[in-house]
Amino acid sequence: MSESTPATIEDVARIAEVSIATVSRAIHTPEKVAKSTRLKVNQAIAITGYTTNAMARSLRLGRSNMILVVAPDIGDPNFSSILVGLENEARSHGYGVLIGHTQNDAQRALEYLKFLNSNQAAGLILFTGILPFGHETMTARLPPSVGIFEPVFNGGIPYVGIDDIEGARKVVDLLIAEGHRKIAFIGDSRTRLAYKRRREGFDAGLDAAGIRAELRLVQEGDGTLESGRAAVERLFVRDTLPTAFMCVNDQTALGVMIGLKARGYDIPGDFSVTGFDDVPQATFMTPALTTIRQPRTLIGKQAMALLLGLLSDRRPAETEILLRPDLVVRNSVTAPSRRWMAK
Amino acid sequence: MSESTPATIEDVARIAEVSIATVSRAIHTPEKVAKSTRLKVNQAIAITGYTTNAMARSLRLGRSNMILVVAPDIGDPNFSSILVGLENEARSHGYGVLIGHTQNDAQRALEYLKFLNSNQAAGLILFTGILPFGHETMTARLPPSVGIFEPVFNGGIPYVGIDDIEGARKVVDLLIAEGHRKIAFIGDSRTRLAYKRRREGFDAGLDAAGIRAELRLVQEGDGTLESGRAAVERLFVRDTLPTAFMCVNDQTALGVMIGLKARGYDIPGDFSVTGFDDVPQATFMTPALTTIRQPRTLIGKQAMALLLGLLSDRRPAETEILLRPDLVVRNSVTAPSRRWMAK
DNA sequence: ACACACCATGTAAAGGTTTACATCAGGGCA
DNA sequence: TGCCCTGATGTAAACCTTTACATGGTGTGT
């Protein structure tokens, strides 16, 4: 009717000549209303262009159709593909996705907390390993939540990630198969479980091949490009050089490559280098980086599906969903250089 | 009190020994309540941990504190930096950001329309040049909106972008300064205004230098990597070769570089290549791509600021905000090859 | 023919706010 | 003293749904 104000359920009821209760039922539990009435209601809806006011509905129901996604850095290119998965799954179930960007700042995280308290979000997707909110009394009040990549804080919150151990294993196995015996591992000493597991996979691979791990070849960094470069420097002051650098993530690998090139070495001619994550830039590095692909969109999809399940009281089958990591072979790995063999 | 149920305004009122109206006023229009009362209310709020229920508030007010951001592809790495700007600005004004992902699918776009109709979003940020919703009756009902990069549909909606003409001009000017006279332009024939403008800048630059434009050197593509490669092939079947390829965007430039390398040429030794947009991969291409930087985060910030202004009834000062494009000089441009000079 | 069950629908309350309007107290002024 | 104005607070309606409960009508079984 009047185009200015959106139609309410009452407008529909008037036109369909039924009560508003019937309209509501016709929409949400159609099997409870007579076919003929349902028809009238549907016509009235079509005429008015009625859409139910989500605010009123959420208020009445006590929960909204929004999912809050909190990530430390939404500018991270890796984030966007996951977001696609999250969003698709959410939308196809009538949920909307709300974005929160903490930049690892507790203050900001706290502001998002308000969205939860004020019932604006029915569920939570967490990207950080640690609960962003000062977990004090908080944890109790948290709505159904799902973590991405890692278990959240004190557990209890299911998460979706990849099998980091297996992924790392695939990388070492490749290097070993190529003939490498002295493999450096450039790690990340921060508390992320994923990084610990990649190290585990590395150790397991060496072990399985009967290679004695050399602790001198293990360097701890912080996952940044710079830490990769620094690790190279540290290794070169010693006299035990590896023939391959296995890096905990692609950033680190890039740093390693830069460091190696700065010293005039050829990759993979002189040294092989591997990454982990398959960031979009990996294809464009020179040489293109051999790494482990994170099925990002799928991770997002599964995480959202899990959360949506939680929201419908379906208890999660498992508290940990680990997807299969795939090895992406590009050009940064080859057999160890004769140069070092001779030595 | 009871931790199970979030505190309502009534709980606060009871503790502060005032009416709920006073509590509401103490929060939103503190100057209207006596200092002593204000104090009592604040204490009560602290005790209860009260946060106003956004659903109820939005219902009453008739508008929410959510901004819907609709983009054709939220997986696009360029999107994320803009999102950072949007999100920061929104959050600092108490607004939340809702993500919509249309994949250029009208059907999906329509689903987002529901968020608007149902009052779930107070404003709209549009990434597509064309209105995603089948603009029929829609346009009238649209909430305050702001476009990104381009004017939306039939105008009337302000937008924030960069000055594409000036950006393109900076590129041609650089090429010309390096000594290039025969410059190919690999364009995008789709209807995006930005692309038209980049072409305009190209023409203007040539004109200003007194170089006669050769239409044969202008190739229309569709902005994809493949279209860049195809353009190279088309140019090589003719005998008029350029010494430089100016591409409408970085994707196209990458395609051109691949095409050129496949034919055994060196960049920039044999041909110079330029892009536009400065996508994250540009640094990693070989050679690193000389291109135009989009101040993405700033664009997001400004767009959101503009929208927030609209929401407070402040009419926009201008309907078009064009930010300054910066030239990013890397390694894909050099003086024209002697090889062609000799010819 | 009566009781009962069942089905379709209506009535009204509840959910948490905001705000126009009413009320009330106190102070200034004639 | 009486009147009016002002400033602080309270009362209650409205925002739009959903749903428990009530109502009334139809049909089944005895």
Give the helix/strand layout.
The structure is a homodimer of 343-residue chains.
Chain A (H helix, E strand, L loop, with lengths): L8 H8 L3 H9 L6 H14 L5 H8 L4 E6 L5 H15 L4 E6 L4 H12 L5 E4 L11 H4 L3 E4 L10 E4 L1 H15 L4 E6 L4 H16 L9 E4 L3 H13 L6 E4 L2 H13 L9 E3 L16 E3 L2 H16 L8 E4 L2 E3 L9 H5 L1
Parallel strand pairs in A: 1-2, 1-3, 3-4, 4-5, 5-11, 6-7, 6-8, 8-9
Antiparallel strand pairs in A: 10-12
Chain A binds a DNA duplex (30 and 30 nucleotides) through helix 2 and helix 4.
Strand content of chain A: 5-15%
Largest sheet of chain A: 6 strands, parallel
Number of helices of chain A: 13
Structure classification of chain A: alpha/beta
The shape of chain A, in one word, is elongated
What name goes with the CATH superfamily of the largest domain in chain A?
Response regulator
What does this structure look like?
Two copies of one chain form a homodimer. Helix content of chain A is 43%, strand content 15%. With 343 residues, chain A is an alpha/beta fold. Chain A folds into three domains: 9-52, 434 Repressor (Amino-terminal Domain) (Orthogonal Bundle); 64-162 and 297-323, Rossmann fold (3-Layer(aba) Sandwich); 164-293 and 327-342, Rossmann fold (3-Layer(aba) Sandwich). In chain A, the strands form three sheets. Chain A has a six-stranded parallel sheet, with helices on both faces. A four-stranded parallel sheet of chain A has the order 7-6-8-9, sandwiched between helices. A two-stranded antiparallel ribbon of chain A has the order 10-12. In chain A, helix 1 (9-16) crosses helix 2 and helix 1 packs across helix 3 (35-48). Chain A is elongated. At the A-B interface, helix 4, helix 5, strand 2 and helix 6 of A face helix 4, helix 5, strand 2 and helix 6 of B. Strand 2 of chain A pairs antiparallel with strand 2 of chain B, so a sheet runs across the interface. The structure holds a DNA duplex (30 and 30 nucleotides).
